[in-house]
Amino acid sequence: MKHSFGLLSQYAIGVLFGWGLIISGMSNPQKILGFLDLAGNWDPSLAFVMIGAVLVGLAGFYVVSKKSQAFFGGALHIPTRRDITKPLLIGSLIFGAGWGIAGFCPGPALVALGAGHLKAFVFVAAMLAGMEICERFFVGHRSKPSL
Amino acid sequence: MEIDWLSFTPIPSLLGGMILGVAAALYVLLHGRILGISGIISGLLHPKLTDSAWRLSLVLGLVSAPFLAALFFGLIPVVEIDSSWLAIVIAGLLVGFGAQYGSGCTSGHGICGLSRLSPRSLVATLAFMCSGFVMVFVIRHLMGG
Fold first, then answer.
1. Most-buried pick from A61, A72, A138, B89 (CB within 10 A)?
2. Inside any domain, residue A142
3. Residue A145 covered by a domain
């Protein structure tokens, strides 16, 4: 029973996150590119999204830091690594380059896919391929990456 | 730099951002995990019996969000995709590869990582912001996009 509620909760949080992306405008690649275009007509909206998200997130993660278990049971899976590594830096730079080309990152791409955009579907397929290439040829030897 | 006042949406963006924060906070409180979309999707590539169901539930939630937004609020998401098919494929490959190699994306490093004051996520966020700025500058201003 608790398992089913857990899955329902996962689904509901996915919907909520999707709504957050839609309301904030971040499901639109043009708004992302408008933010990244510092030299053009700059749209600061993404900075406001981050401020809103992190203000609430700070409170949430503070509350969690006092807990040892998740509501639906089990231990907390919160990364503990603090080392700045080459893969972290290089991977993030590559991620940003792709982000700057089309204005899509994983969450908004899934929302746009759900809104019926074929290009978002192709983006998601290519993204999965990119993940698989990385996993198979670059980090396959290491255990599950942590943030 | 000139501010694009016509496109700028401070209130909806702040509000939407807070909703993203609520989702990330609920996720860690209820499920004990970081709401990092790239990590949740990539776990589906090599599915394990124990965790495919919850990963899929979350992804289905994201995908059905626009339909439910239209149903409940009459809100149709604006999605303008100007990139060519080739650009979409290259961007997807880079985003997927980079998120996997760098252990996270805009949600895991950006929202959750900054919220828990992770030094790794701060570095990652600065890195992808910088290369995003550079890429858009090259495409729009050097190549005349």
1. A61
2. no
3. no
CA pair distance A86, B41, nearest whole angstrom: 23
The residue assigned the tokens 């790794």 is B120
Tell me which residue in A37, A126, A138 faces B101 most closely, judged by beta carbons.
A138
Residues 6+ apart with CB under 8 A from B44: B52, B55, B56, B59
Residue type (1 letter), A2: K
DSSP bridge partners of A75: A69
Averaged over A53-60, what is the pLDDT? 98
A147: in domain: no
Q: Which of B27, B41, B101 sits opposite A13 (nearest CB)?
A: B27
Beta bridge partners of B124: none
Residues in Cβ contact with A52 at an 8 Å cutoff, skipping those fewer than 6 apart: A24, B13, B14, B15, B16, B17, B18, B19, B20, B21
Q: What's the complex ipTM?
A: 0.96
